[in-house]
Design a protein that fits this description.
3 helices; rod-shaped; 35% helix; Immunoglobulin-like; 4-stranded antiparallel β-sheet; 14 strands; 240 residues; alpha+beta
């Protein structure tokens, strides 16, 4: 009985050596890079984004690179050991990034407690909820998927809008121009009234006296309007 067991054990050791397994390991490489070149041990094996082949046992160096002349072209490097007739599936997926910009710029972009950078910048589309902060502006929360519809995020200012100075407004310029015009008209009719009155004193013509009174009325009305105009300007000056 012991001899029989020994024969079985020896056979289990020797027979596999005499009749080795006739199988190879299978390597499957998939990527979303297009167009692509796939190299294994420095040899080009595929220009398709899916490669499937069998290999002997051993180490294999894999290089997946975008077929492009750009200096920043996407690529992946990896090594894999194949043995025991296994199937190894490797997927090289490029990270999808989206452009984020704010108005105003230089806002901080946070993912959780991690600072990703300041706007404008590219962010990963895999990030769930991002927080945008900038001193003096309200905090905004966004989802990267929404950026396809709104690339520029307008931040809301927390500061009250600064009121324009009265002296830089169009109202002041109109009042100032009106004051000059009223002053000129008032002075003109006052001089005209004085000259006409001098003539009246010389010859006593009642027509000249009537004209003098009319000129005085016009001069008085325009001068009163000038005073109201100037008073309003002075009021606005003192109230600022």
């Amino acid at each position: 009985m012991n001899l029989f067991i020994k024969i079985i054990i020896v056979s289990a050791i020797i027979i596999p050596e005499l009749f080795p397994q006739d199988c190879k390991s299978r390597l499957i490489i998939e990527t979303d890079i297009e167009p692509v070149n796939i190299f294994i041990n420095d040899s080009l094996v595929s220009v398709s984004n899916k490669f499937d082949s069998e290999f002997d046992d051993g180490w294999y160096n894999i290089l997946v690179v975008k077929n492009s002349n750009n200096w920043d072209k996407a690529f992946f490097k990896d090594s894999v050991f194949l043995s025991g007739c296994v199937t190894k599936n490797i997927n090289f997926k490029t990270e999808q990034r989206v452009y984020l910009n704010t108005s105003p710029q230089d806002a901080y972009v946070l993912f959780g407690d991690s600072l990703l950078g300041s706007t404008p910048l590219f962010i990963s589309s895999d990030d769930k909820i991002l927080t945008i902060t900038k001193p003096g502006y309200s905090v905004e929360s966004i989802i990267p998927d929404d950026l396809a519809r709104q690339n520029i995020i307008t931040l809301k200012s927390l500061q009250l809008p600064k009121e324009e100075s009265f002296f830089y407004s169009s109202t002041f310029h109109i009042l100032a121009a009106t004051a000059v015009a009223l002053g000129a008209v008032s002075a003109y009719y006052k001089l005209k009234a004085d000259n006409t009155f001098d003539k009246y004193q010389s010859n006593g013509d009642p027509v000249l006296l009537n004209k003098t009174n009319k000129y005085d009325v016009v001069s008085g009305i325009t001068f009163t309007a000038l005073q109201i105009n100037f008073g309003y300007i002075l009021y606005r000056f003192l109230s600022e």
